[in-house]
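Predict the 3D structure for this chain.
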Amino acid sequence: MPLLRKVLLRLTILVLLLVAFYCYQTSDGGHWIVFNLQTRNASLANLTATSAATTYSINYLPSTVSISPRNETNYYNVWCIFTKVASNSPMKHKFQIFTDSLLRFASIDITFHVISDDDSRDIAAIVIQNVMVNTGKFMEVFYYNVHKLAAQLEDIVSVMSPHFSSKPGTYYSDALFFISLGLHRIAPSHQRFAVMFDADTKFRKDVKDLFEEFNKFGEKALFGLAPELTPVYRHVLYLYRNKHPTTMFGEPRHKGGYPGYNSGMVLFNLERLRKSHVYNEIVNKDSVDAITEKYHFKGHLGDQDFYTLLGMEKPELIHTVDCGWNRQLCTWWRDHGYADIFANYSECHSETKLWHGNCNTPIPND
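Done. Predicted structure below.
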């Protein structure tokens, strides 16, 4: 009997999700049928369907499945960019692994924010629905149009892309790599904290534990990032290091050095960012031009390059998160001139809490 009840429960949930998805596909403008899911006990008695006309801002589109808001849903905000994905793309599988691991380990109610284009959004919606059925868990999901966000953040993108893009000039592509720098402007105003992840990541621990890092922020910290685990910034800072042979910039952590940051996982104190005059001043053209010239810095990794420079100029603005929360697997630099010192950078003696399969590196199946 317990097995039969479990099967019936999953079938019922699947039917409700399919109906919701149909409503998502056939709704017009801002009028949607939304299912309210009280997930404290995840019981069928709590599932109710309501029909209502809801108005959302132009970039703030509702999910097909929604959980009733509680105070903590304003806290556990998880963001991810999922764009330019075809139905047979490897990124679809990576996104499935990411969302599945996120939900399976989660002990809290998550509000999931997906930045996407129209085609990729449809793929994301199906993946997320399947994950919710398979895990028996739910999360509120919101979709944001990447083109509209790019237009909102044009000022940031135009300042950053000449310094931190491999081939500046393709506006849409450039914008994807700098959206995190303006997240405080595009996130709904009630959000105080958020975490953004690359889609090629996989959880091994509850995301709730990562949100505890906000309690460790210094009084001026705006962001939280884990260290870069390759010598990429030793390479990028080559000219500066030649002129400053005693600098610790670009050196590995075990020598007390500063290897830079990796943006596969970023914590945001959105409340502080919205009020920060220091941050607003440093993201303008004159400041970015001056900092990149000071360090002879020409990057190619988007927002990650800016965070690394910010940590050099204003270290108090970034809280360093344990490397276990962004255990990068890329070995590209080991095979391109840095084999003798690569291990000095890649070592992470902490427990792995989040795998990051950057450089298309396979993530362990654990």
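The mean pLDDT is 84.
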